[in-house]
Amino acid sequence: MANDPRTLIAVLRQSHDRLASLAEAISEDFLPHISYADAWTVAQVFSHIGSGAEISLLMLEAALGGPPADPDAMPAIWDTWNDKTPRQQTADCLPADDAHIKRLEGLSDAELAGLSYDFLGLTLDAAGLVRLRLSEHAVHTWDVAVAVDPEAVVAPAAVEVLVPMLAFLAERTGRTEAGPLRVRLRGTHPEVDLLLDVSDKVTLIPWPAGGAETDGEIATTTEGLLRLAYGRHDAPHTPPVRVTGAADLLDRTRAVFPGF
Fold first, then answer.
1. d(CA 180, CA 198)
2. pLDDT for the residue 154
3. What is the CA radius of gyration of the chain?
4. Backbone torsion region of residue 135, taken as left when φ is above 0, otherwise alpha when ψ lies between -120 and 50, otherwise beta
5. Residue 1: is its pLDDT beyond 70?
6. What's CA 198's distance to the chain center, in Å?
7. Bridge partner residues of 123 (DSSP)
8. How many Å apart are CA 46 and CA 75, to the nearest integer?
9. Which residues are within 8 A (CB) of 113 and not within 5 positions of it... i.e. 6 or more apart?
10. What average pLDDT does the segment 66-77 reach?
11. 242-245, strands of its sheet edge to edge
């Protein structure tokens, strides 16, 4: 089900609904409050999700066989959103986000099956393209949610289908300066068992059938591992965790993932 584009689109819609609920609950006075995303206000997170929706729609149309997405269009989109007031950034985010999701929801099975988009050396199909947007959407929605409720978690439905993004993130955002390091990462809900290897590059693969030598093990929720990979796993926002190995193993592992 994690590779079914209809399932992923439905989870993206749920994330949109969660964001809309947050927007309704937040007062205008709270919009300048700093979110979890470093140096971004709550309103700026809404702005980023809104501009991301417009860019995602350009990518989608290109994947459907339309004109290639113009990289030069992106700065203009960002400038437009940056020029909005905090209230406008928040209010305008939701219809822009809804327009992108409605376009996905309206695609036929044949159109979904034919989707193809080149991104950072990968050719993404419909599931890959939607998962890419969902990974940003669900985590940035958490950036807002946790500013309201320190106990907030990334939506469980999103965690369930975002596990395949972990290796992608590790390879592209992981810092080799934190190594050499080999750690077994085990998560629950859903169950995952992974090997993080930091040497001249960062990789994250399923735990080998024959086992492997490591510096230790970190066992926690899979939601916690997802936030770890996104650089959102500081001490005040760490779910229950069991660490086997050196006392600094968790901090060294956090250092691999700077976040964005």
1. 5
2. 98
3. 19
4. alpha
5. no
6. 21
7. 118
8. 17
9. 126
10. 87
11. 202-206, 192-198, 181-188, 216-221, 242-245
* Surface-to-core class of residue 5, CB atoms within 10 Å of its CB (0-12 exposed, 13-18 middle, 19+ buried): buried
Residue 242: helix, strand or coil by DSSP?
strand
Mean predicted lDDT score pLDDT of the chain: 95
Q: Which residue has the tokens 């971004």?
A: 40
Over residues 106-132, mean pLDDT? 93
Residue type, 80: T
| Token pair 């993004």 in the structure block, residue | 165
What's residue 260's pLDDT? 74
Distance between CA atoms of 136 and 207, rounded to whole angstroms? 26
Picking from 257, 76, 113, the residue whose alpha carbon sits closest to that of residue 179 is 257
Query: Using CA of residue 227, residue 231, residue 232, residue 237, what is the dihedral sign?
Result: positive
The continuous run of DSSP H or E covering 119 comes out as: strand 117-119
Q: What is the pLDDT of residues 31-58, one digit of tens each?
A: 999 999 978 999 999 999 999 999 999 9
Residues 219, 145: Cα–Cα separation, whole Å:
25
| Residue 55 and residue 77 in contact, taking contact as beta carbons nearer than 8 Å | yes
* Helix%, strand%, coil% for the chain, nearest 5: 55, 15, 30
Q: CA torsion sign, 74 to 80 to 85 to 87?
A: negative
Please tell me what DSSP assigns to residue 150.
T
Report the pLDDT value the prediction gives residue 71, as an integer from 0 to 100. 81
